[in-house]
Design a protein that fits this description.
By secondary structure, this protein is an all-alpha fold. It is built from five helices and no strands. The chain binds zinc ion.
């Protein structure tokens, strides 16, 4: 992501409107570009200040801390989604493996039988 795109996405970041993919690219840029981070801090400060002027909530005052907290939550969201896809891929691979084994047993019982013997032998070892 370029600085220009990161700056364009700041409004959507503050309003939690980025997709997880966009968020991942945004965080990667913000974490590696001090000038965009500074820009985000300014943007965030103004957005939160405007918001809390109406609400008069004391929590609004520690803005750098709130930004750090928001960034951490966003990183967690990206990480969670990545872990979810890895788990999904592993599950799919297991399903494909089970399907292949089932096909072997159905299509060629003699190979299936050998495989069964092999598996039984293998399991006896443990
Ligand atoms: Zn930048």
């Amino acid at each position: 992501m370029k600085c220009e795109d990161a700056i364009k996405n700041m409004d959507r970041f503050v309003n939690h409107n980025l997709t997880t993919k966009e968020l991942a690219e945004f965080l990667e840029h913000i974490d590696s570009c001090p000038s965009c981070y500074e820009e985000l801090e300014t943007y965030y400060t103004v957005a939160i200040a405007l918001h809390y002027l109406d609400q008069n909530d004391g929590e609004g005052y520690n803005i750098p801390h709130r930004l750090q907290h928001n960034l951490q939550e966003a990183r967690n969201r990206v990480r969670r989604e990545k872990r979810y896809y890895v788990a999904l891929h592993i599950l799919l691979m297991i399903l494909v493996a089970v399907l292949i084994l089932m096909l072997i047993f159905v299509q060629a019982p003699e190979i299936g039988g050998e495989l069964e013997d092999f598996l039984a032998h293998f399991l006896r070892i443990f």
